[in-house]
Amino acid sequence: MTDGFESPGTTGTTAALPAVVARVTALADRLGVPHAEVFDTGRLSAASGVPEPVVKALLGGRPAGEPDVQARFLQRLQLLRRTRLKPNGRKYTQQEIADGAGMSRQQAGALINGDRRPTMEHCDAIQRFFRVHAGFLTAEDPEALTGALQGVEQELLQRLAEREAAATDDDPLERLLQDHGVRGIAWRAAQLPTDQHRDKVAEWLDMLLESVKRPES
Q1: Per residue in 142-159, is it b (16+ CB within 10 Å) or e — as a string?
Q2: In terms of CB atoms within 10 Å, which of 29, 118, 158, 207 comes out highest?
Q3: Cβ atoms 183, 177 nearer than 8 A
Q4: What is the pLDDT of residues 54-101, one digit of tens each?
């Protein structure tokens, strides 16, 4: 087995998962979207590469996931081969993966069979071939699921923005907020990853308002 990269260890994303779950839940409730739709474990598994039983456990607040980076790599590579198919509906062969990722068939076979520990270069090449984001093959399970849920959050925010834009014409106050860009600022702030980031935006706006206040007559 050749040398590969080391697991990055525990990150702050474990704590970030409950926060994004809460935000997605609130958005779904506001839009009237069933929780079963936004927390579809099969869809989240395909988007994140996390096995569906692990997705269910993490959403339920239970610790779960594969701690070994090579085991995660194999799990997710197998998922990619099952879910990212050729136009004819068949799996990519080892030779096709090797050619697309710029490696020999022997290298690709060893990686797919778990006989060789992947390097970052291997992961980057395979991720590009399957057209998934950087880190798909290696991110810890809570981090990967958090990223997939952030994608769901963006979809819900877009739906909310479209619904509110459609209602603007019928509501003078909404029209005023839209004309002055208030909704746009709020929508962008909602996309920030943590409450700390949103607090910084609020502080910046307070300073900006203070700086442009007109002197009292």
Answers
A1: bbbbbbbbbebbeebbee
A2: 118
A3: yes
A4: 999 999 999 888 888 999 999 999 999 999 999 999 999 999 999 999
Tell me how far apart the alpha carbons of residues 66 and 44 are, in angstroms, rounded to a whole number.
Answer: 17
CA angle 133, 24, 9 (to 5 degrees): 50
Helix (H, G, I), strand (E, B) or coil at 201: helix
Q: How far apart are CA 156 and CA 189, in angstroms?
A: 14
Q: How many residues does the chain have?
A: 217
| 190 closest CA partner among 53, 51, 48, 22 | 22
Query: For the chain, what percent of residues have pLDDT higher than 70?
Result: 77
Per residue in 4-41, pLDDT tens?
444 444 445 567 899 999 999 999 999 999 999 999 99
Six-digit token string for 91: 């799996």
Return the SS3 of 66: coil
Please give the Cα distance from 170 to 203 (Å, whole number): 32
- DSSP-derived letter for residue 103 is S
**In contact, 72 and 66? CB cutoff 8 Å:** yes
Q: How confident is the model at residue 209 (pLDDT cuts 50, 70, 90)?
A: low
CA end-to-end distance (rounded Å), the chain: 78
